[in-house]
Amino acid sequence: MYLEVRDLAYRKRDINFKALNPVATGEEFLQLQHTVASMMNENVTVTGEYAHTLDAPRNRGTSILIIDCEDRTRVTWKNDGAIRQPDFTDPNGNPLRNPAPVEYTLVKDKGAWKVSDSDLLWDQPC
Description:
Blueprint: H1 2-12, H2 17-20, H3 26-41, E1 44-48, E2 51-54, E3 58-59, E4 63-71, E5 75-79, E6 82-83, E7 100-109, E8 112-120
Antiparallel strand pairs: 1-5, 2-4, 3-4, 4-7, 5-6, 7-8
């Protein structure tokens, strides 16, 4: 559910907090707000659909890890109407592989499992 909420927030450049509150908490909750606010400030628009392929959840006791093989093939990010070039880059400035693995950490919050953190595993294949 979190990825549906996140992807819609990117496309609308707006966050539905009634939908976000049950699926995100902590750093991830704040990061999505920051990203959407930055999109508004920098006139960034997102069109298209992400494809998500989720691995089986891995129980870590007090948390659960899920890796998403996120495919951006059908997604376009534009800055001021121009397609972002290069699309996305890794920390070394090289084009980010696509699809790319993203690790999500879920924690129990108010009785529900919520995404609390995400980490783009830019140097690993899906």
